[in-house]
Amino acid sequence: MKRLCTICARSGSKGLENKNTRLLLGKPLIAYSIESALNSGLFDKIAVSSDCEKILETAKGWKADCLIKRPIELSEDTSPKIPAIVHCLLEVERMEGYTFDIIVDLDVTSPLRHVSDIKNVVEILEKSSISNVVSGTYPNCSPYFNMVEMDEKGELKLCKTIKKPIQRRQDAPICYQLNASVYAWKREFLLKGGSTLLNKDTFLYVMPRERSVDIDDELDFLFVEFLLSKRELLNK
């Protein structure tokens, strides 16, 4: 069973400038995902895909195996991520001369994951007939209780409703929030039918909220920095 870890990190972040190489407690943000992949001991190769030479050089310094230059058309603000993962996979296979069975993508902006999260996701995928696994967590808000949207008239309404109005958050249907941490596919599905993240046999791996912060802006970065500094307390 051959496994590839992909880490996709394009330049041009709008929410937080240069976030992929920004120092977080003394290490570049991208280093956390590379180290997690290395420490898992699961992967035959760890590949970093980027349109930015600085990011690729940083990844090389933290012992990524393969550095993949991402085409411009896969690096725009509007570019979806899965085609970039597929491009990375095919480039690594071309370079190495063999194919991979399992592809796991670790998002740079989710450094709070544990190695155990990666191992659990891979185990679930390999021991079942499902095609892919995504990670998520329990959200702060519910579309049935306190998430609202505005219609064309400017009127507010709940995002989702059911016949019996929800009076307490605890009575709302259980919902999950994808946490952009660990994604995994079987190769055949990723190449032939995995252009959408959620499919009829997608499995959700649930992570606790303290490991599920996705860095998108300065506040997220500061919160992750705080949680990492308190990790020993959180793990007790």
From TrEMBL:
Which EC number(s) does UniProt give?
2.7.7.82
A single GO molecular-function term is: N-acylneuraminate cytidylyltransferase activity
Listed name of the protein: CMP-N,N'-diacetyllegionaminic acid synthase
- List, alphabetically, the InterPro entries matched: CMP-NeuNAc_synthase (IPR050793), Cytidylyl_trans (IPR003329), Nucleotide-diphossugar_trans (IPR029044)
Pfam families associated with the record: CTP_transf_3
Sorted alphabetically, which keywords does the UniProt record give?
Answer: Cell projection, Cilium, Flagellum, Nucleotidyltransferase, Transferase
